[in-house]
Amino acid sequence: MPWFVRRVLGIVPTLFLTWTIVFGVLQLIPGDPVMLALGGTPASDEVLDNERRRLGLDQPVYIQYLTFLKKMAIGDLGNGYSSKQPVSEMIAARVRPSLELALGGLLVGILLGVALGIAAGLRPHGWIDTMTMSTALVGVSLPSFWIGMLLIYVFGLQLEWVPILGDGIDALILPSITIGLFLAGGLARLIRSALIETMTQDYIRTAHSKGLSAVRVVAKHAMRNAIIPPITLLGLQFAVLIGGAVVTERVFARAGLGSMLIDAVLTKDIPLVQGLVVYTTTAYIVINLLLELLYGIVDPRIRSRRA
Amino acid sequence: MSEAPLLAVENLSVAMGATPVLEDVSFQIAPGETLGLVGESGCGKSVTALSVMRLLPNPPGKFLGGRILFDGTDMLSLDIAALRAIRGDRIGMIFQEPMTSLNPVYTIGDQIGESLIVHRGMNGSAARTETAKLLDLVGIPAARNQLDRYPHELSGGQRQRVMIAIALACRPKLLIADEPTTALDVTVQAQILDLIGRLRVELGMAVLLITHDLGVVAEFCDRVAVMYAGRIVEEAPSAELFRNPRHRYTEALLHTMPAANPPGRKLPSISGTVPAPADRGAGCIFAARCRFAIPRCSTDLPPLTEPPHRLRCWNPA
């Protein structure tokens, strides 16, 4: 079996296990789901029983479990309590703002992180390195709500360079920078250390002995070997981001999945919370799979290793 | 040596940080000639090899003085672009560690062809055709099918053959081989040396062979330079050196050769160790370990005599 088919099949048990855990956790939530579904409106026992039957809650737990798995497999996440809309459609409507923000943040993070990481890694303890590493620490340490508000104040309110609200691409600039700065800090550090380590390898000396230019030695021979840890970091950060950047979405009043999750939790909209958790975990697993496939492309040794 | 030398290293001194590692090293290699550079670990053989290519990492490596004339041009005065034009094109180099000297994420075809693309301006397919010929030349069977293999799919001996193909891709005038067989099995060692020997004749190139194996030198080299603690202590045509070693260090070294000793008995060793740079006196650095040292040895540094049999010793054999 080719390595990638093995990898793709490998996620089936993981998905199954994740859904099982989601189901199990929801069983543990205190309170009667039917009461929650009715939103606290007083109701007769008959109404409650009908509602319970409609939701399948009168069935034994194992039947509920199997029904749940079946629905997950076909992407049916049920209807939200408050909106009565299908959860899958509600999520789909909010994916775009979150995805845009994730991609914007990733772009800023990569541009900044890769450039600074390489500059720092090629001259360890030089001035770019010293500056980048101290700034990177600040970038990672500062909470994003603070950076976000600072950006809004300086570039939105004082300088009025960019709008602070809206759906346009220009409204994406400040939140992307907010997320990008955080990503760039970690990325620059990781690229720096991976590059320093790689540049001491024997094959780098071989590359120089062939008379290659410094750019070619770094860009071709070193970076491909140094890139796996940074790819891992970015992939996992991206997976978290497409589940919604909770704080940044709040600060910039963007209607993404992060704010949706907060609202769902606050209103105890169980199907919506469940749907969001399933969506986020599944996205996480799929991105992990894509990462593994990417490792195999970058490094042939991983491809030939037995799973 | 009637011809103009291809490589002339003159009074080369190199330091790693504050530590001198090469002092006043001079030697020459004529076109097509093979010079063996021998000595124990840490004596400066590899530093010499890397210095010629200016591949010594800086910092900590630092040139303190001397010249490295390749085809009349001083390598130490070249800018980086001129240096790159020589590296991999007119001087090829192979290293001690075939397992780690190839880039694990590129195919061997890519790594060999790269030199041709960079130095010869070949396009991808021309480089591929030439690369297949090179693999064939270094004795990798079914060369065409091997181009897309990765280093981890090859044995140590095959990887060293690939390294040789890289070094020879542009038909260099000089091959620097830094302990090319040390990391290999004994049977493979002989094959690799035979290969280098055969290609040297076929391509008419000069070889600087760095090794600690005197047997290899005897078989392979026209001339030998013996290094001790960063200095050349003796240099002579191979046959002359093996027949008539004059420096006490060379003499002791020859006594340690397995072939020079009856089988079944423990091999002799040179007692003591190379003194650390800080503990070196004004005289001959080998004096502390030398059974034939005279008083003068520890006070005055012996000068290196003139060719053909150069020697740095106050009390030679």
Strand and helix layout:
The complex is a heterodimer of chains A (307) and B (317).
Chain A: H1 3-28, H2 33-37, H3 45-54, H4 61-73, H5 87-122, H6 127-141, H7 144-158, H8 173-199, H9 202-209, H10 214-226, H11 228-242, H12 246-251, H13 257-266, H14 270-298, H15 300-304
Helix pairs in contact in A: 1-4, 1-14, 5-6, 5-8, 5-11, 5-14, 6-8, 7-8, 8-10, 8-11, 9-10, 11-14, 13-14
Chain B: E1 7-16, E2 19-29, E3 34-38, H1 45-52, E4 61-70, E5 73-74, H2 80-86, E6 91-94, H3 98-101, H4 108-120, H5 124-137, H6 143-146, H7 156-168, E7 174-178, H8 186-203, E8 206-211, H9 214-220, E9 223-228, E10 231-237, H10 238-243, H11 248-255, E11 310-311
Parallel strand pairs in B: 3-8, 3-9, 6-7, 7-8
Antiparallel strand pairs in B: 1-2, 1-4, 4-5, 9-10, 10-11
Helix pairs in contact in B: 4-5, 4-7, 5-7, 7-8
Name its key features:
heterodimer, A: 307 residues, mainly alpha, MetI-like fold, 2 domains, B: 317 residues, alpha/beta, Rossmann fold, 7-stranded mixed beta sheet, 4-stranded antiparallel beta sheet, 21% strand, globular
